[in-house]
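Render catechol O-methyltransferase in 3D.
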Amino acid sequence: MGQKRADEFDGKKAYRAQEEEGVPFFDDGREIELLHFVYSHPSIEEIRGSPRRVLEAIDEYARTKKYLMNVGDDKGKIVTNLIAERKPQVMMELGGYIGYSCILFGNAVRQAGGRRYFSLERNPEFAAVIMSLVDLAGLSDTVKVVVGSSAASIKRLHATGSLTQIDLMFLDHYKPAYTTDLKLCEHLKLVTPGTVLAADNVIKPGNPPYLEYVRNRTSEKQKQYESGENNGVQTTGFEDRWKDQYKKREGEEKLSTEIQGNPNLIYESELVNSYEPTGVPDGIEITRCVGEMEFETNVRCNNL
Ligand SMILES: C[S@@+](CC[C@H](N)C(=O)[O-])C[C@H]1O[C@@H](n2cnc3c(N)ncnc32)[C@H](O)[C@@H]1O
């Protein structure tokens, strides 16, 4: 496990600061305001059909109007480099918001010869914004936006045969769901040797349970699996602001406590330090599934 350092942050491109605690920083109408901003942009005809120009217009809104919780340019480069290296046929993101990462990574997947980019978004209004901007960028042939909670969508895509393998997964949704959704994907054999995971916000706000899981040794995971210690959902290690981030709109997020995943998968994981688009330091955890140990497991899962 290594630590890589990104270049210095360029303050000229900084987004507006995220609002102070107690003040909404999303879902207060700004997502629809963004659509009006983009579609009434003086350069709308040049923006049409250009993923780069759509991203520039989104960045312009977030620099000059209101903060948007996008992955941004710096952390985005880490993932687009990964896409160029791994050349995924199928990539999935958990948490699409207004479509920034979807347009950036969906375009990179298409350029690398990939087939499908799934963007899973729980909030139907945000999903509608993603679809509109993906269409504007000319990426509707590659991108499929899936509306609903990530776990339900993963199960449905798997059950219908639309999703049989994930080559690259970007995790950027409800922080405690990173680990439960990864275990679900392991259980369904969507994550197998060759799969690469890129998890956002592992420094800000941080995700200790996820980091512990992907950095854990296989022997330790097997022990926990056998003893049932690995069971349950960890919501400790998150500040309330992040744990309750979506509660007002979506209600309490019900995460599965039953699915234990596949403890036999061998991961190599490293933190790549970078910046939020506001300039605040953050990092992406890159995890490569490099093999699978032979070890008998009793399937522990009642609720699929
Ligand atoms: C940080 S934003 C995603 C930003 C986006 N990946 C980008 O960089 O442009 C997190 C998003 O995850 C969505 N979300 C939260 N919990 C979710 C869940 N269980 N399933 C699907 N989406 C979820 C939220 O509605 C929000 O839009």
